Amino acid sequence: MPLATTGELVTRAAQVRSAVAAFNVITLEHIEAVIAGAESAGTPVVLQVSENAVKFRYGRLLPLARAAVAAAEGAAVPVALHLDHVQSDDLLRQAAGAGFGSVMYDAARLPYAENLAATRAAADWAHAQGLWIEAELGQVGGKDGRRPLDAHAPGARTDPDQARDFVARTGVDALAVAIGSVHAMTTRTAALDHGLLKRLSAALTVPLVLHGSSGVPDDGLVAAVTGGIAKVNVGTALNIAMTRAIRDFLAAHPEAVDSRKYLSVGREAMIQEVVRIIGVLGGAPG
């Protein structure tokens, strides 16, 4: 079917107090696993390509993007394509011609005034191209191996009043909020600040996004969706599932050299994780 857009999927989810799962993909196996899992669950899904994934692919966006578009167009459920955590303006400007319907522009590392100005410029460009745009305020942390900010450090959490000002002045379509999750966690021990989420949800009219969701326990994810999160980003959980399955397979079959053997095992493990996470999000009361 034709590509869906992140905007339509997230807006629809927000209207019924549910959330769409958005999975970061690095390889073709990731793409296939996310779509197969979404088809098994019978739900729409978002495929996300991050700036770091593009760097891994020698800085070339199109090979992975075109594979994602082709796979999405052959899917039995609506699939959207999202360019995630973009800091490079050059990469941002490749989005529209590569099949993406949305971008997440990440200037959260900058002081507030600079973040606001850079995001306003990115939003103006994105909207002129017909793209839905997400931004981040506060710092989720944990990207590129950096330590997350202390929970009480300035800028570590998203301030509701500042968030209201930021959304109004930038014109972004959704906001990723820092409420206690951390990128790249390999343990599911993140404790979300649900009181802060309630205040953010009351302060803002745009959909809210949770990054670093792999480190959040299931009950925390359910509570986040109930509290107003409409898009849940997942990446590390798929990599954990894939790596564990491949490691176990190679330990049991040290003679194996055909990459299809262990990649298929890794892909299947990711499919099961996609189905599991979608099931968790679907368990939130609407």
TrEMBL record:
InterPro entries: Aldolase_TIM (IPR013785), Class_II_FBP_aldolase (IPR050246), FBA_II (IPR000771). Transmembrane segments: none annotated. It holds the Pfam family F_bP_aldolase. Its cofactor is Zn(2+). CDD domains: TBP_aldolase_IIB. NCBIfam families: cbbA. This is Class II fructose-bisphosphate aldolase family protein. It comes from Streptomyces pyxinicus.
